[in-house]
Amino acid sequence: MPADDPTPRRSGGRAARKKRRSDPLPRHQRPVHPGMAGGQYRPLTQTQMDRIHEAALTALERIGLSGAPPSGVKIMTGAGAMLGPDDRLRFPRRVVERALALAGRNIRLHGRRSEHDLDLTASKVHFGTAGAAVHLVDADGKIYRETGVQDLHDAARIADKLENIHFFQRPMICRDIADSREMDLNTIHAACTGTTKHVGISFAEAGHVADGLSLLHMVAGSEAEWRARPFASCSICFVVPPMKFATEACQVLEACITGGMPVLLLSAGQSGATAPAPLAGAVVQAVAECLAGLVYVTAMAPGHPAIFGTWPFVSDLRTGAMSGGSGEQALLTAAVAQMHGYYDLPGGAAAGIADAKLPDMQAGWEQMCSNLLAGLSGLNMVYEAAGMHASLLGYCHESLILGNDLIGQALRCLRGIEVNDDTLALDVMAEVCLEGPGHYLGAQQTLRLMQSEYLYPDLADRSTPGEWEEHGRPDLVARASARKREILAAPSGTSAAALDPATERAIRARFNIHLPAQ
Amino acid sequence: MPADDPTPRRSGGRAARKKRRSDPLPRHQRPVHPGMAGGQYRPLTQTQMDRIHEAALTALERIGLSGAPPSGVKIMTGAGAMLGPDDRLRFPRRVVERALALAGRNIRLHGRRSEHDLDLTASKVHFGTAGAAVHLVDADGKIYRETGVQDLHDAARIADKLENIHFFQRPMICRDIADSREMDLNTIHAACTGTTKHVGISFAEAGHVADGLSLLHMVAGSEAEWRARPFASCSICFVVPPMKFATEACQVLEACITGGMPVLLLSAGQSGATAPAPLAGAVVQAVAECLAGLVYVTAMAPGHPAIFGTWPFVSDLRTGAMSGGSGEQALLTAAVAQMHGYYDLPGGAAAGIADAKLPDMQAGWEQMCSNLLAGLSGLNMVYEAAGMHASLLGYCHESLILGNDLIGQALRCLRGIEVNDDTLALDVMAEVCLEGPGHYLGAQQTLRLMQSEYLYPDLADRSTPGEWEEHGRPDLVARASARKREILAAPSGTSAAALDPATERAIRARFNIHLPAQ
């Protein structure tokens, strides 16, 4: 800033202008928001997508899927699938085409508060958490320890406060709950009492779904209220790639559909291990598997909200281990997002995974790479977008918090560049160059666009080296830790996500809730 | 990896297979290389580019540029520009269109070794360093100190060893050399004796160019050899935005053109300060300024190699400070890359800048964001792509080293996804699912693609949490420091970049070389 403030009278002085510049904008005027449209990045051409679609149809016709439960065989053969002597279900292309015609579109995933509803039409992009991490990454101590229900609840509470985390799917396993039914139910409770954003959960067995739905009905107020605005979706690994239904998960799928719960049809192959090594082949297989899932869902309930969950992962082929932080992963995720658009289906995939063990420079570049390409390719639901380390094995609260800045920046890119008479700025340029002060610092246009055109991070450091040294060379992760403590210091029981005391008591009376009463 | 190795006979056992998997590929078979084609990401539509072009032409006609030296006024008015009573040069559109027709295309920037030549046609992408940092970031001690000629030479030596750093433009100032002529000459010497890749330098005054060229002729062997393969380009901030020629730099420009040196026509406005606040307006101004530069160059020497250096930067409008790590920066860089393609001109811009003071998570996401979008938008020369911190004020050797992995990953994304009968993998899928082991680990296709389809980082950690703990929880930056020490431990005088002793002696006899003789 120049010493001679160019507009002292209009701005009411530099301090006042600086204050006005840092006042938060009303939500609709902010530079980024949930549901911004992607599609500026297209790794696949139309012809390539046609070929992938054709190959997926051929795979469903020629190879088909094994492993469907008897109920699923009945449902899918009823829709035209054919059970071979090798017990594989094969899908003539007209069956798949009919499923595509019957698929749920114009899908909205509800938050417990409507301000958090997610509109999954077109290429609208939302970022959130997901996963099944088994380690909590202690960023201070740089150690990995087992995850527990309190960690999950804390993550939900943190995500609730982060503007650019648009939904909260369970990112970690409650390893301190041995009984799998109790774990499923406590996962729902710990997530729902931490955030009013849309929640994603899962069930280990179909037998847990009825209890889970009862719990969700209690949170909603009644079954009718739940069915009107189901604020939780179920993530279902309904296939075990390659090309095999996961028998038990299919039963979960059926129970969720019956219970009015949106489902994520998740195919999580790993290239070179459980999916073909070429990236194109991994996309083909994921698309084929999810199309089979779509036949399943639409045969049961046409229009049921089902997210096309092609989640092809990457192997490091030297070791066979997963590499969620690789460039290949970013490409796979972007490519499947394009396929979702090809079918005009609500879709989700994984991005934002770090292979890095800690929230370090590697984590930053890995998380940005796939989140950015996922967003720019128009992925509706970007799962695992924040906090995820060690290729899904570790979850880090500090990283989740820093992910809010990282994703904000990806969203800013997604918003792109507006080109119109105002933004082309010829008149401002003429005034500044021919009549004005020779710079744009005090121009009305600059002041007007400061908050709506530019995004400012919460924790990312933009100070000069001199300021940075004056402030004691602040450490990024330490600042995130401080923010975590600040968020978690408020009593959980008084948050907007907390249930009313009577409901909380009723839930605790009926189920064994492990989280201490707040 | 499964315990029962699926292909023991074909592979000669797991250990042998693992070894074969980790053998380096010949250069042409590697998954990424310099000059891969971008263009999959297009933030601007064709109509938007047309409007930006029109606005730039209008700005050149209506506003024009002040500040040209008398020689430049003569050259440009000779080409049809008009000097107004306000001493501004204005450019009728036919003058600009003629410059575009006369511009150098099919440009090759030479390395001292031809294997490092850069082909700047179409949307071929190259990543390298640049800048004028004044602080060396000591990543171990987390301190900033003044940069010196040894730091510059070290950076050149490190860049020489990094596969994904394709050129070495001077990234920092030799602050230990007070005399500006000596600084310019020592910069050339320190860079050229550190790397055989293409080098970018600059001159503070036109009076330094003759000596600089003499030095370059000595390095090349003769003036004729220099002119046949000029392995150094001159970065010239020929404008002081908004819309004003930098008088002295214009004289440098003229001297470089006469000396057969490729030039980078650099316009470095800063949105909201020295360029309009709307991103579109910042692009318009940068394009207009560089088009004026193109009139200048083509009027002197049609076809002279000139890189269209639209480098619009971003201000954090709360403070007026630069924010090179922002999403807005990534968008600006990608947009100007599209404009280079619009004109079919060789172009360059800045990306990979971190606002972060250290190579931390923020640095990772900031550097990846703009490098990735720069590459995917097809920017020919991605300047400042590695090592740059504190929004250009700090340079970090460890970060440069880690940037090699980061840029490798961006290049992998740039390569995209090949779709053909082989990669669609239907036959492999059928074999694995219907006849085979139910996984792809031992498939011939997997083994074949392992090194050509997948990129493996040098320093990024992909170990499991267990392995990571066994290895003592290695720190990423510490590993980069170790690599730096390893690279710099070899005597500089014996490297491929070192000059033959007679030349080195002759240079030292003629110029005051500050770098100790090796």
From the structure above, extract its key features:
TIM Barrel; 44% helix; alpha/beta; 518 residues; 12% strand; four-stranded mixed sheet; homodimer; globular
Supply the number of helical segments of chain A: 20
Low-confidence stretches of chain A: 1-12
Strand fraction of chain A equals 5-15%
Radius of gyration of chain A: 24 Å
Account of the protein in words:
- The structure is a homodimer of 518-residue chains.
- Chain A has 518 residues and is of the alpha/beta class.
- The first copy, chain A, has a domain at 100-415: Alpha-Beta Barrel (TIM Barrel), CATH 3.20.20.480.
- Helix content of chain A is 44%, strand content 12%.
- Chain A is built from 20 helices and 20 strands.
- Chain A has helices spanning 8-11, 14-22, 46-62, 70-78, 93-102, 149-161, 180-192, 209-220, 223-228, 247-258, 279-300, 327-343, 361-376, 397-415, 421-424, 426-435, 444-449, 465-470, 476-489, 501-510, and strands spanning 36-37, 82-83, 89-90, 108-109, 118-119, 124-129, 135-138, 143-146, 167-169, 198-201, 232-236, 263-267, 270-271, 306-310, 313-316, 321-322, 348-350, 381-383, 388-389, 394-395.
- In chain A, the strands form 5 sheets. In chain A, strands 1, 6, 9, 10, 11, 12, 14, 17 and 18 form a 9-stranded mixed sheet that branches. In chain A, strands 8-7-20-19 form a 4-stranded mixed sheet.
- In chain A, helix 6 (149-161) packs parallel to helix 7.
- The longest helix of chain A has 22 residues, at 279-300.
- The first copy, chain A, is globular and about 80 Å long.
- Chain A starts with 7 loop residues before the first helix and ends in an 8-residue tail after the last helix.
- Chains A and B meet through helix 2, helix 3, helix 11, helix 12 and helix 13 of A and helix 2, helix 3, helix 11, helix 12 and helix 13 of B.
